[in-house]
Amino acid sequence: MRRRRFATIAAAALLVPALAACGKSSDTGAAAPKTLTYWASNQGASLEFDKKVLQPELDKFKQQTGITVNVEVVPWSDLLNRLLTAATTRKGPDVVNIGNTWSASMQATGAFIPFDDATLQAVGGKDRFVPAALASAGAAGKPATAVPLYSLAYALYYNKRMFADAGISSPPATWEQLVADGKKLTNGKQWGLAVEGANVSENAHHAFTFSQQFGGQWFDAAGNPTFATPQNVAAVKRYIDLMATDKIVNPGNAEYAQNQSVSDFANHKAAMLLWQAVGSSLKAQNMGPDEYGVTPVPFLASPPSGGRHIDSMVAGINIAVFKHTRNREAALQFVKFMTSDAEQVILNRTYGSLPSVKTVEDNAAFAAPEQKAIQQVLSTTAAPLPQVPEESQFETLVGTAMKELFADAANGKAITDDAVRQKLSQAQQQVTK
Amino acid sequence: MATTIGSDAAVARRGRGKSTPPPGTPPARRRASAAGRRRPLGRSRLPYLLLLPALVLELGVHIVPMAVGAWMSLREMTQFHIQSWSTAPFAGLRNYRATLDLDTATGRELLHSFWVTVAFTVASVALSWLLGLAAGVFLQRPFRGRALLRTLFLTPYALPVYAAVITWTFLFQRDNGLVNQVLDSIGLAGHRPFWLIGGNSFAAILVVSVWRQWPFAFLCIMAALQNIPGELYEAAYLDGAGFFQRLRHVTLPMLRPMNQVLILVLFLWTFNDFNTPYILFGGSAPRQADLISIHIYESSFHTWNFGQGSAMSVTLLLFLLMVSVVYLLVTNRRVRPDA
Asked: Helix crossing, B252-272 with B105-138: angle to 10°?
């Protein structure tokens, strides 16, 4: 009898933790309703830097509301998969940052609270937000799936000293000038331009801008992919050719996916860089704002017919609330806090981005040349990426195809129109509708 | 010479028979006593109760997800349905047809990935086993420093996979990696080659895979070598057998049962290895090293087509199951006449 009891107890003792582990809920704060989990995207020089920036603000929020926010800064390389996993399992964070280009794709999952008029009112009202930024928070005609948090655009960063040494008096305004300048700047010690050749998202962003300039579209009006059009082939080839034929990019950049191109620019290994609000990262790598200039991304000198005067996507970071949150009110309170005037100034000033609310657009914190340049691009020559559910597939498939093309270029393989078309056709065939 | 070899084999077989010592009690008597004794009910349930947690976990961690994967492969599981799986439309075998249709890019790329994986697995298992055997045989006899070498050889197996592979990514970088610096310093790299992109990526992943895996082969072979009676080697030596003849006619036949399992396990691990290519290539592998595990991941996560990804996984599972069954049938058939 005693043995049987022992056996039962032993088995129960072993089983209970196992079952408990299976059924353990996420840290969404079920047991502690005054706690939120927040996944922040990596905006600064490192994950640790971002945590240091955000923590005092979260403490402030706790002081004001009594709600604790546990933050995790997620690297860009993992963020989309993590969001997808959280959407699938309905476990994980309450509030998340998402790249604004993913908005329509994330919206299609139905995993996020839609920001209809009433919900927008709860975070300060629709009119508070910059219209272009809010337009990049979901498909047209549907309630936004998030609200804008940081606004960004691409710009061309150039090293003033290197330009002066090469006898170049002004930054390039056309790609043809950029190539000519790049050749002057490339020598045994340095390269004209640094690119992030293995970074799938970066590649896709440049594919969008070049495609606009060549008169292309990645999706037609019905939302079907049109990856392998002659315009898109020319656009992608133009970007890859900076390494393949112009030879102003170090072939080693084909391996870069962890912001090594930013380090190369900061460490004077490259004279130019195409990036979004990179000032804080450069500062963290000991490159002061007086050492570099910021100017709009170049255009084609002779655009083909249909070519558009666009040199950046409307980039930015949105903040969204998962439907599975058990603290909807607290989560919306947190969104309101993060988009409040005071936080918008503090956070955007630190990251070098622009505010997503109109009320602080003219704040002196955003008067630096870098922010002025971004502001100019955003208000005049930026266009949003297509807000279709398959957008994230465009980024991963086309970005990966370009990563492979960079690898071919780096290995000395000729990048022909056919090679580019083949890669883009292959990417298009994989799109799931 | 033929006589000597024949006698070696006979000695090896005798040795194998001797290596299972007769139990203290005669088997017939043991059976009789076990049958005659009625175990108390609680005691007979104890093993089942103790197995229950493992069974629950096995069901939860392996069996149920596999069944869900198989169910998912019959559905159009895309981003529109990941919140509510039951709403995903039934696709029948459409995902399988799309996966295996060689007229489409998906089918062709999967087949390409399959052949890359076969070549990679064969090379990795063969090299790991050969290195493990060589190290095991050379460390079989005691000598000064043997324990240190054994520990050193096992280090890669003890390191966490992420830390180990991420170190290799740094080593393999073209401009700043140690591999190219070493090649440069000894004058072997005329132009710095790429290791993580292009043709060399296959060699790079193979090196990392063998580096991670061979210590396991070494560990198993070393343990099995301890069980070979020394008299067998003495007898072979007295019969005039040299090093290679002893290896061929004593060591390898005695290692055969262990090798049978070891090679199967290495094959399955290598074929399915996800961590190594994922960490080494950062989520998307170059075409030349497009191993099937990462290919399936890309097919699922890049396009959010989880139905198709599951169809690929189920196909892979069936293939591995078939290979394992055929392997076990063939190897058991070869072992049986000797036994």
From this structure: 150
Beta bridge partners, A299, equal A174
- Say whether B83 and A90 touch across the interface (CB within 8 A): yes
pLDDT in tens, B155-196: 998 899 999 999 999 999 998 899 999 988 887 766 789 999
- Structural element, H or E, at residue B99: helix B94-100
pLDDT tens string B100-125: 888 887 888 889 999 999 999 999 99
> Does the domain at residues A154-313+390-429 carry the CATH identifier 3.40.190.10?
yes
Instruction: Give the closest residue to A77 by CA, choosing from B278, B141, B45.
Output: B278
Q: Is residue B318 part of a domain?
A: no
DSSP 8-state class, residue B111: H
- Distance, in Å, from the CA atom of A285 to the CA atom of A269, rounded to the nearest integer, reads 13
Does the beta-carbon distance from B50 to A7 stay under 8 Å?
Answer: yes
Give the gap in angstroms from C-alpha A377 to the nearest C-alpha of chain B. 30
Q: Give pLDDT, residue B20.
A: 41
Query: What residues contact B226, with CB distance under 8 A and at least 6 apart?
Result: none
> Is B176 in the same domain as B224?
yes
Average pLDDT, chain A: 90
User: What's the domain count of chain B?
Assistant: 2
CA distance B173 to B195: 7
Q: Domain of residue B53: give its range.
A: 25-72
Query: A295 pairs with which residues across the strands?
Result: A156
Q: Are residues B64 and B202 in the same domain?
A: no
Q: What are phi and psi of A146, to 5 degrees?
A: -160, 175
Q: Is B332 inside a domain boundary? A: no
The topology (CATH level 3) of A35-151+315-383 is D-Maltodextrin-Binding Protein; domain 2 (3.40.190)
Give the residue among B322, B295, B320 at the shortest CA–CA distance from B309.
B295
Residue with tokens 């549907």: A142
Each residue's pLDDT tens digit, A177-202: 999 999 999 998 999 999 999 999 99
- The verdict on B154 and B54 lying in the same domain is no
Distance from CA of A372 to the nearest CA of B (A): 35
Closest alpha carbon within chain B to A389: B79
Decide if B116 contacts B290 (C-beta within 8 A): yes
Burial of B52 (0-12, 13-18, 19+ CB in 10 A): middle
For residues B16 and B229, is the Cβ–Cβ distance under 8 A?
no
| Same domain, residue pair B155 and B262 | yes
Looking at the fold, whether B112 and B44 belong to one and the same domain comes out as no
What's B218's domain CATH number? 1.10.3720.10
